[in-house]
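anyone seen this seq b4? input:
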Amino acid sequence: GNIKTPLPRSEAASSTDIDRQRWILTICKRAPHVRVVEPPVAPPEVTDSRSAMSAQKIVMVTGGSGLVGRAIQEVIEGEKNADEKWIYLSSKDGNLTDAAETAAIFDKYQPTHVIHLAAQVGGLFANMKHKVQFWRNNIMMNDNIFQECHKRGVQKLVSCLSTCIFPDKSTFPIDEKMIHDGPPHASNEGYAYAKRMVDVQNRMYKSQYGMNFTAVIPTNIFGKHDNFHLEDSHVIPGLIHRGLLCKQKGEPFTYVTFAMRRLFCVPFHIQPH
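predicted toks r here
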């Protein structure tokens, strides 16, 4: 009957093994009834450090030193997931409005997932005074992040938007489908239009490249690590600072309300659904 002669199995064949294989192949040519059973090819050794850590998620958080970034860090440190590595960026790590510096950050950390919180933000007076800067800096920052995530095959990008992107004249309740139904309030149009473009970018990268890019739109956020500057802060930290000054000076704390309604939350209330 047919003779089954297995070839030697080894991860690194010696000269003796090679000679033996040549001998067997010679026999097969002279004796057609001899059938050689070849062993399965062993997978190559993994030498690339990124491949070796492919099972680990590397989550990079831009704006990691800010209000929401610090809250995320506090939650993640309490969970202690062994298969995840989290990197929290601040402005000290590089200028995200610069394409080369953004690429260098991605080269350094090699993220598999990105949470994009970094932005030029400010209160009412800052937005009114620096509309062009709010537009340009946020547009450049977002474009660099999107490009690097696409080029490097980042598995998921989650960006953070703002309620100020919604139309100034709108019906209530509002939802994410109404973002582009009209212009935002003129006071912060630079920032608002730049943030609206994130929604457009998400759709375009999904349509053309199949990228898993999305965004969340939390309501007005306040809490620990907020900006309490008297002119550049948002409403609640600004009121807290003014109230503290009144208390220290023994002055009455007066504010005016026109019975308007606004929604606020602390960062820990931002939950995935």
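Helices lie at 15-30, 49-52, 67-79, 99-109, 124-129, 131-151, 189-209, 235-249. The CA atoms of residues 170 and 182 lie 8 Å apart. kinda curious what u guys think
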